Amino acid sequence: MSHDDDPPEEMPSTPSQFARDHPAVWDAYADLGAATAEAGPLEGEEKRLVKLALAIGAQSEGAVHSHVRRGLDEGLDPAAMRQVAILSIPTLGFPEAMAGLSWINDLA
């Protein structure tokens, strides 16, 4: 697997174990991630910030952590990731935005 959305080498234990137990499902999931990444004109940093915003909107701490880790690995400015959480205040609400910000700050 060498997709844009491959898991980082140090992946949390649950998805790591899932990938080992169900490699065909994991590969199909990675292929879907690659196909969606190629489905439009957004590039690198833009895609990462959009995916971070979606993770915050879904209130998924694990997904936020994943996109922050990947963003940092890709050289993304932590201030840009924090701004995504701040931008979510009027749409998602203050508590949800603060949760997203705290998850970003766990790693950045």
UniProtKB/TrEMBL annotation:
Region (Disordered): 1-22
Residue ranges constituting the Carboxymuconolactone decarboxylase-like domain according to the UniProt record: 23-105
Pfam families for the chain: CMD
Single GO molecular function: peroxiredoxin activity
SUPFAM superfamilies noted in UniProt: AhpD-like
Designated name of the protein: Carboxymuconolactone decarboxylase
